[in-house]
Amino acid sequence: MASLPSFYPNATENVKNFQKNYFPHIITEVTNAIKENDVVVVGMHLNPHCSRAVKELNNAGVSHKYLEYGGYFSMWGERLALKMHFQYPTFPQIFVKGVLIGGCDEAVKELQQGTLFNELKKK
After folding, report:
1. Which residues cross the membrane (predicted)?
2. Is the pTM of this model over 0.70?
3. How many Cβ atoms are within 10 Å of 12's Cβ, its own excluded?
4. Which domains does the chain have, with CATH numbers?
């Protein structure tokens, strides 16, 4: 698995500790899913981009693990922890073979080009 970048390097130790200890069980859950699955989609309820990403992966026959953390009015802290940890500002966050490729637009582009997901399609 490719290593993820560290937090903002000029932050104080207090800030780094806060980030490290902000919903650590959520970070562990997502990190374990990334280790155990070729494709992981981290999303939120009622977000049309998350729904579209899952639909496109399903239509292409790509097996994936979907993790959902609340909606627009719930679990914002958990999603903020993910944004801080993975340094990606939006949802969905899509990981392929341990690498964050981006969100829905990037996944759809990869599916259309047939590059990244071809070997992962169900036989």
Report:
1. none
2. yes
3. 8
4. 13-118 (3.40.30.10)
